[in-house]
């Protein structure tokens, strides 16, 4: 009886261990990306579940096999994920199409555009004000290093744009029709000084919910040493990071390009697979 109880306890412990291991793997899914320029290992972030889940679904379906990097810019990034890039007879412009539904933005200040970041591509703000991500297109950051002064200037520019967007939104809000009418009156009568004074008067109200953007100390350190594309922070969702094979990004980004940043030679994704941990491999073998 005692031995039986011990076996039951041991079995329960093993089940618990397996469950914990699987949960851990689910929290830190890794993907092996193999291209004709080399291999990379990418870790997906659990804090961006919508993007990570969507990416995993595409990887498991085999969607990315045969997809090419259709846009490459040295010192910036390499972009892939247009389904038309798998079609050898396609003669149109790549980068216009995506597979699947758009994904809601998942901005997290913990993750930024350092070298090796896996990020979601998207359509521009003019047609995509909510910054929703493409269903399948992504880019890998190569970037370059920046001085602290340049980073401070970037943060200032980002904040100015955010304030401007809040101001425009406030003026265009139907509930503030009196504000719009007043501005239009000043414009029609070419009262530039009055416009400037009025804008300064309403600015504190329009931007009362403004949250200033700033680069974290970690980001500043990374951007000044390893590099990245800091000017994209807060505008595109970062949902993963290359943890092995950073040099492959350099290989891809250093290829010669034609007009519109099209690689002169094909840069193809040969395969993309979810990497299993040891517990999962053992269970699959059984």
Tell me the series of helices and strands, N- to C-terminal. Answer: HEEHEEEEHHHHEHEH
Strand order of the largest sheet: 3-4-6-5-7-2-1-8
Low-confidence blocks of residues: 8-25
Backbone shape: elongated
Strand content: 15-25%
**Number of helical segments?**
8
Q: Whole-number radius of gyration?
A: 24 Å
Distance between the first and last residues' Cα: 29 Å
- Number of DSSP E strands: 8
Structural class: alpha+beta
Helix content: 40-55%
Average pLDDT metric: 90
Largest sheet report: 8 strands, antiparallel
Structure overview:
This protein is elongated. The chain has helices at 2-27, 49-61, 148-172, 177-188, 192-206, 217-225, 246-253, 278-285, and strands spanning 30-35, 38-44, 69-73, 77-80, 117-120, 138-141, 238-244, 269-275. The chain is α+β, with helices and mostly antiparallel strands and 286 residues long. Strand 1 and strand 2 (38-44) form a beta hairpin. An eight-stranded antiparallel beta sheet has the order 3-4-6-5-7-2-1-8.
Quick gist of this model?
With 286 residues, this protein is α+β, with helices and mostly antiparallel strands. Helix content is 41%, strand content 15%. It has an 8-stranded antiparallel beta sheet.
């Amino acid at each position: 009886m005692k031995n039986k109880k011990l076996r039951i306890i041991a079995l329960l412990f093993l089940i618990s261990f397996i469950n914990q291991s699987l949960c851990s793997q689910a929290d830190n899914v890794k993907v092996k990306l193999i291209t004709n320029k080399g291999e990379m290992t990418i870790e997906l972030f659990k804090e961006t579940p919508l993007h990570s889940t969507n990416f995993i679904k595409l990887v498991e379906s085999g969607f990315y096999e045969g997809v090419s990097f259709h846009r490459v810019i040295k010192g910036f990034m390499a972009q892939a994920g247009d389904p038309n890039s798998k079609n050898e007879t396609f003669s149109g412009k790549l980068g216009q199409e995506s597979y699947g539904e758009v994904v809601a933005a998942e901005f997290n200040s913990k993750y930024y555009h350092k070298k090796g970041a896996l990020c979601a591509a998207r359509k521009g703000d003019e047609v995509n004000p909510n910054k929703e991500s493409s269903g399948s297109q992504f880019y890998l950051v190569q970037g370059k290093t920046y001085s602290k002064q340049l980073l401070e200037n970037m943060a200032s520019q980002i904040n100015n744009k955010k304030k401007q967007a809040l101001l425009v939104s406030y003026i265009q809000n139907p509930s503030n029709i009196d504000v719009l009418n007043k501005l239009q009156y000043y414009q029609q009568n070419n009262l530039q000084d009055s416009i400037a004074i009025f804008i300064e008067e309403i600015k504190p109200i329009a931007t009362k919910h403004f949250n200033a953007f700033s680069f974290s100390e970690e980001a500043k350190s990374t951007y000044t040493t390893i590099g990245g594309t800091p000017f994209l922070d807060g505008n595109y969702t970062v949902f993963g990071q290359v943890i092995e094979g950073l040099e492959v990004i350099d290989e891809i980004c250093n290829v010669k390009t034609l007009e519109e940043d099209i690689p002169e030679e094909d840069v193809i994704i040969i395969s993309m697979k979810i990497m299993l941990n040891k517990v999962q491999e053992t269970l699959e073998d059984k």
